[in-house]
Each structure stands twice: as C-alpha cells, then as structure tokens.
C-alpha cells in the first residue's frame, strides 16, 4: 500500500536540516503560496510565487534497461578483475539473493556494506559493442537542483552519453558526453566545466574528466555538474540565488535546460584499462553501478509548494486557482485572464500570477479617477479597490464603518450618502458604458 508522501512542508525535520545544510539560506524560500492578512474589507489572502522543496528524486522514478536481459546472473557468470585477469571471484547469479545484482540496487540505501550494485553481463560478444541504456522516468516534469552523480562499482566506462527528455521519452537530447578520448569517440574537443561561461552554459560538451585514466580504487563517480552551472550566476557558494532566479525567470532556454521528465544513461564502451581488449578473458569487461543521485523538485510553475506521490505518480498540489500535474492551466471558472507561470521576480517573494475568477457581469474594474470615484476621501488603487479612510468602508468607501459596529451608528441618520446595492450596480454599469463611449470617442 502506498501512502501519499508530502515532499515539502510535510518533510521531516531531518530532511529540513539536510536541506538547510545543502543549500544556503539565500536560495530564496518560495515556500508559501499565500498568506492571510487584514485589509479595509476584512480578512484577505495575499498570494506569492511558490515551489516545492528539493528532494531526492530517485525515490520516485521507474528504471528501464535496454536490452532488457542485460543484467547479469541468468545464466550465472563469474567475473575477473580488470587489474588481475587471474583473480576471478566475482559471481553473479540472479537466482540467489546474495549474488544477484538487479537494477534497484542502484537506488538503495547509500552506505550499505558491502556495497550493493547493479551489474551487466560481460562483454561476451566482443567486438560487437556492449551497449546498455539505463532510462530513469518520472512521468512528471522535474527541475534539477544538484549534480547528477553516478557511482560505478566497475571501472568507469570509456564511452558514455547522458541524455535527457522533456517529453516523457518521445525525444531525447544529449546533456553531456563522456569519453577517454572525446575526439576519437564523438569527434568533439574535450572540455571541462572550467570552459563553460554564462554565455556558453547551454553548450553540450564532451569531457574526459570522468573517464580518462584507469583509477580503479579511487574515483568511481561520473558527474553532471548542475551546481557549477548555477554558480555561474549565483557565485561559487551559491550565495546569490536571486541572480540565478532572475535569469531563470527571463530565459526560457535556461529554465528548460535544468528541466527533465526522463534521464537516459547510454553506456557505450566499458572500462578496458588497456589499449587492447583481452579477447581471451572477456569476463573482465562489464558495467556495474552502485548508486545514482538525482536531486530536484517537482516543476509546478511556481504555483505549488508541495508535490504528492500517490499511485506511483508525482502531482503538484496546485494553488492560485491553477490545476494540472504541473499547475499548467487555470481551473474551470478561473479563466478571466490567460494562465501564466508564477515569477521569481520581484525578489524575494515573487509574483503569483493567480488565475482570476470569471465574473458574471460586465464590470471587472472597481474604480477610476473619473466616473467611478471612491467616496468620502477614498483613494482608488490600481482600479481594483478603494483604499478607504478609517471611518469608512464598502466597495467605494460609501459606508460609515460604524454601521458594522455593535449597535450600528446609534440609529441616527448619519447623513452620509450610502449607496444601496442596486444603485451601486447601476452606477458601475453606467460607468462601464460611459467609459466605453469615451474610449470610442478617443479612437474616432
Ligand atoms: Ca547501491
């Protein structure tokens, strides 16, 4: 049975502590979608841009391997080490729990000892390539917030591509190429993150940093650097996230760069540790991965601060009268203006861009400085409300506030002009008509 998991406000204190350690306070919070406050008209909602807390996204993915029978152990196989072809004590047997290496062991608890890992069959069909695609699918758009880190139990591959999809696996584009020799493998000049600038951030590079050299014991990780890319805008320690958020707000390509629905790890050539492949002992060559880290958050278009996982699916808990898995449209009856994503700007609380209720009548503006004047010294604010002096209330500040108090205004006729609802509506309607006419006259 799967219980709904609330990823954000409902997160445990431990998670909050981890998140706090992981990200500086200047990330910007965006953790509240709305708050309540008092205005002249009473209790009202204030709306802000909001997003779910970042989380370990490997808990919510589906993994697919291609070819499907590429996992070792059926039939059982014995592997030799790359360093020593005579040391052959690595057994894989899918039928025995202790000797099986299924894909889920790439996402289990880190720190388990001995390490648990997925392992492929060996390169028995050499020289035909030993190619494996590992696809991670979320069935939901997510935004990456930290480096993707793949930890190998075997030697790191000599050739590999990390790809992403934004359309649930229908189309794919490369994120990064990895090779011991980028020119030879992909006809690309080798580069590292140090070559990337703000202007080339969207460039797809080939790097030899995570493949070159045979480092069996020490460095086992292959990385896709998200934080270094963030740092180009937010500074080395990500202290100025406001700057990054400003860029994300105004540059769709940049926002899309960090957004995915799926990831695909294409393993193209295993570690060989030498220039020549030892054809007499192909059980030295295989892939094994002990851990994959993907840190991110549900993409909710800044309209939700939580995302639930139910029936094996992530869904934003949409606010601001929005709906859909990514809060990507306005709710029914809230389409008075076109949907738009929330905005990080202005910092620090952003703009909610809420979906507005459809109005039954023709009047959607409340006041202006010509015909629909706020009364009793009230001031029209953005055409949507009258800011009334303390003694008055009502849509156009037409009511003495004492009317609302216990005992009313003492039963006496206060002498203030008080508009009855029908006359008020008539005034609003007439105002609309007058305004329309004025506009026509201006046009003519
Ligand atoms: Ca593991």
Textual characterization of the structure:
Helix 3 (227-234) packs across helix 4. It contains 6 helices and 25 strands. It has 444 residues and is an alpha+beta fold. It is 14% helix and 25% strand. Strands 4, 5, 9, 11, 12, 13, 15 and 17 form an 8-stranded mixed β-sheet that branches. It binds calcium ion. Calcium ion binds at residues 105, 108, 116-117, 290-291. This is Netrin-G1 isoform X14. Residues 46-297 form the Laminin N-terminal domain.
Brief rundown of the structure:
With 444 residues, the protein is an alpha+beta fold. The chain starts with a strand and ends with a helix. Helices cover 14% and strands 25% of the residues.
Bound molecules: calcium ion
CATH topology heading of the largest domain: Jelly Rolls
Q: Give the class from helix and strand content and strand pairing.
A: alpha+beta
Query: What integer value in Å does the Rg equal?
Result: 30 Å
Can you tell me the CATH architecture of the largest domain? Sandwich
Number of domains: 3
pLDDT averaged over residues: 83
Q: Strand share of the residues?
A: 15-25%
Overall, the morphology is elongated
The top level CATH class name of the largest domain: Mainly Beta
Number of strands: 25
Distance between the termini: 68 Å
User: In the CATH hierarchy, what is the superfamily of the largest domain?
Assistant: Galactose-binding domain-like
- Give the helix proportion (percent range): 10-25%
Low-confidence stretches: 1-26, 412-444
Q: How would you characterize the largest beta sheet?
A: 8 strands, mixed
Number of helices: 6
